[in-house]
Amino acid sequence: MNKKLAIIMTMIFTLILFIGLVSVMIFQNFTSAEAESSKIGGVVHSVESQTKEVGGVIHSVEIKEDTTQDEIVTIMHKMTHQKVLADDKWGAIKMDPETINEVYSVIEASNFKDKAALLSIAKKWKEGNFSEADADHNFFWNLQNGTVGKAKGLMSEEQEKEFIKNNFHNLGR
């Protein structure tokens, strides 16, 4: 009887040990995946999903004095894509000082319906302030009656670098 009890106890101990080891392995995989992901709207999205190459990347933007408000909004909206976390992004334009200055100049000289708001955003960007790029994105998104791809936060510096590498690798600016 004692021999049978010892065998049963050994099997139970082995089973508990096995379950413990499997649990540790699952936890380690989960935490390493969590470390390499962003949380958007309570849902975990991988870094790759935020930094991947998006369709509709524009490498050369022509901004003229007679560019319309709708065109400026589209340009600025696509510029925010390198800064924001969103479930879906279509199009990207590099957020660089030259383009920001061109956009600012057009808005400043315009009679756009939303001139004050657009100028305020462009001014922040000229000063290198992108701390509200997600709110800026959603302003443009709302103006364009967006239904998919609302920004839900800002990318980390590393994510933005990866997004730039993946989307603007052929850009001369």
Order of helices and strands: HEEHEHEEHHHEH
Strand order in the largest sheet: 1-2
What Rg, in angstroms, do the CA atoms define?
25 Å
**Termini separation (Å)?**
82 Å
Strands, count: 6
Residues in helices, as a percent range: 55-70%
Mean pLDDT, as a whole number? 84
Give the low-confidence spans. Answer: 30-38
Strand residue content: 5-15%
Look at the helices and sheets and give the structural class: mainly alpha
- Overall 3D form: rod-shaped
- Main β-sheet, in a few words? 2 strands, antiparallel
Number of helices: 7
Properties at a glance:
173 residues; two-stranded antiparallel ribbon; 6 strands
Describe this structure in words.
- The longest helix is centred in the N-terminal third of the chain and has 34 residues, at 2-35.
- 56% of the residues lie in helices and 11% in strands.
- It has helices spanning 2-35, 47-51, 69-80, 97-108, 115-126, 133-143, 157-167; strands at residues 37-40, 43-46, 57-58, 84-86, 92-93, 151-154.
- Helix 4 (97-108) runs antiparallel to helix 5 (115-126).
- It is mainly alpha-helical and 173 residues long.
- The termini are far apart.
- The strands form three sheets. A two-stranded antiparallel ribbon has the order 1-2. Strands 3-5 form a two-stranded parallel ribbon.
Chain-wise SSE layout:
Blueprint: H1 2-35, E1 37-40, E2 43-46, H2 47-51, E3 57-58, H3 69-80, E4 84-86, E5 92-93, H4 97-108, H5 115-126, H6 133-143, E6 151-154, H7 157-167
Parallel strand pairs: 3-5
Antiparallel strand pairs: 1-2, 4-6
Helix pairs in contact: 3-4, 3-6, 4-5
